[in-house]
Amino acid sequence: MGILQLLKSQFLCHLIICYVFLVSGLIINLLQVCTLPLWLVSKQLARRINIRLGYCVSSQMVAALEWWSGTECTLYTDPKSYPLYGNENAIVVLNHSFEIDFLCGWTFCERFGVLGSSKVLAKKELSYVPVIGWMWYFLEIVFCKRKWEEDRRTVAQSLQNLQDYPENFWFLLYCEGTRLTPKKHQISMQVAESKGLPKLKYHLLPRTKGFWVTVQNLRGNAAAVYDSTLNFRNNETPTLLGILNGKKYHADLYVRRIPLDLIPEDEAECAAWLHKLYQEKDSFQEHYTQTGRFPGPIVSPPRRPWALINWLFWACLLLYPLGLLFAQLISSGSVLTILASVALCTAGWFHAFTPKAKSPCTGCNSPSFSLTIVFVLNVP
């Protein structure tokens, strides 16, 4: 293990990363609250400001993946579609097989300049969570209660509100609703058999209602669906804790651009179309398993420096007063005070990285720290 890798695995480095993320996030939440009066004067200006404030939070997670762990992201896509990425509104359909697939989706958004304006469909409870949830509220994220009769109206209205959004956005969807596990896959395939649907090997059955409502309400606004299938080389199973420890992974992402006009408007036909899409995604995963790559050419967008620059800015801003406090603590000479501070930090670290019995996201029981689990999104 090299010196740099040893440094990345140290508790103090993890503590610093979490401290910068949490404190900067709360500061950004406060700044977002200050934009409330501006919504009454200029809605579009308030939106643009919140896009950049939101980027200051979410890009820190991307910086951890790209710059701290050094994870590589390879994109397989049609070169003719490549120039359109980031220059149009789109619905991004992601598979939900890994703990960090949301983060790879955000990296995809970052490399095409739409991270700050990207949207998701998230549970209503997350809007009350500090940092991420509050940030999402000001970014007009679409929240649902998982009660479909109520959600049909609220989700549709939230999507309609995006018709005049001032910047290009991507709407990220996990149509499987929850992350793939062997038990969930078995249950899902039993449902497929009972409904006479073809079985899937690498995916759960997609939930079609949320997808149909999304497509219907973004017609005329979004130009295409980006069918995205993610996998990791060498059969790796990446985790957020691995990213924090500086472990390097290699993600391969296959993206197909499908014009929205090709998706049926009728709900039943749209559902059948989505089931067919997931059968095709299954074949792509089978191809990857057999050959170690997705079909098609590789077009790798370069890393942008802005996520790293943003993190360094907040780190410099917030670590300076922390350093002064630490110096005063040491100079006080009080052994009891020092031991109490170390015990408090250690307790916080164990609480953050201990596996939870049940996360607030349905079907997501992962050993990720308590705040990052809110990134795992479920579609009704």
From TrEMBL:
It is a multi-pass membrane protein. Pathway: Phospholipid metabolism; CDP-diacylglycerol biosynthesis; CDP-diacylglycerol from sn-glycerol 3-phosphate: step 2/3; Lipid metabolism. GO terms for biological process: phospholipid biosynthetic process. It comes from the Eukaryota. The keyword Transferase applies. Keywords: Acyltransferase, Endoplasmic reticulum, Lipid biosynthesis, Lipid metabolism, Membrane, Phospholipid biosynthesis, Phospholipid metabolism, Transferase, Transmembrane, Transmembrane helix. It catalyses: (4Z,7Z,10Z,13Z,16Z,19Z)-docosahexaenoyl-CoA + 1-hexadecanoyl-sn-glycero-3-phosphate = 1-hexadecanoyl-2-(4Z,7Z,10Z,13Z,16Z,19Z-docosahexaenoyl)-sn-glycero-3-phosphate + CoA; a 1-acyl-sn-glycero-3-phosphate + an acyl-CoA = a 1,2-diacyl-sn-glycero-3-phosphate + CoA; 1-octadecanoyl-sn-glycero-3-phosphate + (4Z,7Z,10Z,13Z,16Z,19Z)-docosahexaenoyl-CoA = 1-octadecanoyl-2-(4Z,7Z,10Z,13Z,16Z,19Z-docosahexaenoyl)-sn-glycero-3-phosphate + CoA; 1-octadecanoyl-sn-glycero-3-phosphate + (9Z,12Z)-octadecadienoyl-CoA = 1-octadecanoyl-2-(9Z,12Z-octadecadienoyl)-sn-glycero-3-phosphate + CoA. Residues 90-212 form the Phospholipid/glycerol acyltransferase domain. It is an enzyme of class 2 (transferase). One of its GO terms (cellular component) is mitochondrial outer membrane. InterPro entries: Acyltransf_C, Plipid/glycerol_acylTrfase. One of its GO terms (molecular function) is 1-acylglycerol-3-phosphate O-acyltransferase activity. Its EC number is 2.3.1.51. The keyword Coiled coil does not apply. Belongs to the 1-acyl-sn-glycerol-3-phosphate acyltransferase family. Converts 1-acyl-sn-glycerol-3-phosphate (lysophosphatidic acid or LPA) into 1,2-diacyl-sn-glycerol-3-phosphate (phosphatidic acid or PA) by incorporating an acyl moiety at the sn-2 position of the glycerol backbone. Exhibits high acyl-CoA specificity for polyunsaturated fatty acyl-CoA, especially docosahexaenoyl-CoA (22:6-CoA, DHA-CoA). PANTHER family: 1-ACYL-SN-GLYCEROL-3-PHOSPHATE ACYLTRANSFERASE DELTA, 1-ACYLGLYCEROL-3-PHOSPHATE ACYLTRANSFERASE-RELATED. This is 1-acyl-sn-glycerol-3-phosphate acyltransferase delta. It comes from Larimichthys crocea (Large yellow croaker). The lineage of its organism: Eukaryota, Metazoa, Chordata, Craniata, Vertebrata.
